[in-house]
Amino acid sequence: MTAPACKGIRPGLYAITDSALMPDSRLIRDVEAALTGGAVMVQYRDKNSPPSDRLSQARSLQAACRNAGALLIINDDPELALRVGAAGVHLGQGDRPLHEARQLLGDDAIVGITCHGDLELARTADQAGADYLAFGRFFVSGTKPTAPPADPAVLGRARQFGKPVTAIGGITLDNAAQMICAGADLLAVVGGLFGSDDTEQRAREFANLFSRHHPLFHLSSVRES
Ligand SMILES: Cc1ncc(COP(=O)(O)OP(=O)(O)O)c(N)n1
Ligand SMILES: Cc1ncsc1CCOP(=O)(O)O
Ligand SMILES: [Mg+2]
Description:
The protein has 10 helices and 8 strands. The protein has one domain (3-224): Alpha-Beta Barrel (TIM Barrel). Helix content is 44%, strand content 16%. It is globular. It has an 8-stranded parallel β-barrel, surrounded by 7 helices. It has helices at 24-37, 51-68, 78-84, 98-105, 119-127, 153-157, 173-182, 191-194, 199-213, 215-224, and strands at 12-16, 41-44, 71-75, 88-91, 110-114, 132-135, 165-168, 186-189. It is α/β, with parallel strands linked by helices. The relative contact order is 0.16. It binds ligand LCLJCK34, 4-methyl-5-hydroxyethylthiazole phosphate (TZP) and magnesium ion (MG). The site of ligand LCLJCK34 has 14 residues, from strand 5 and strand 7.
């Protein structure tokens, strides 16, 4: 993860919303709790709500993220990202092509790309100008059980691209350290975070794992001692 290419992306918890798990009444409150607990990035992922609800929710999330100094990413929808002034968009292999999102959002926007478990997809995304590379699912996922499985070894190999490496799919407190040690800079979590009764505390526990296991924090604490 090299500084100039990172556009403000820091290693840490990447909280992803889910309309089934988080009714409208809880969405903003739960995301604010995740941000208070230390989430560094939030993705608004909602495939069901009508466009007017999506717009108002994305606007509220953008305000919450700005207040917390965190980055808001919109799933699938570059136009919505543009309308609400989000930091960027996340695109899968079946979504709009990266170059269209880049044209719409500009060079400063973050575009993250799903690479499943495939280093060649990552190479293509890197060459096309992706800002982070997302791999997974690594474990059983209640949110997206049909996502193709990936081998954790891909996380370490993907570090060759010098871009933030994201892990997703069934991540919980029990397997998060394994993901960070395998090479993940960001842990993208839905159920393991928003399925908790205490989102703020759960987010804090994820954030603490980065302090203990991610090389950026680990190295600075070694230097300070
Ligand atoms: C961080 C992150 N990684 C992967 C995905 C999955 O994106 P995609 O393959 O487009 O699937 P959907 O999320 O759109 O169902 C993601 N959203 N975020
Ligand atoms: C969107 C997505 N893509 C691969 S797995 C997944 C869902 C992640 O959710 P959870 O953390 O609940 O497994
Ligand atoms: Mg998608």
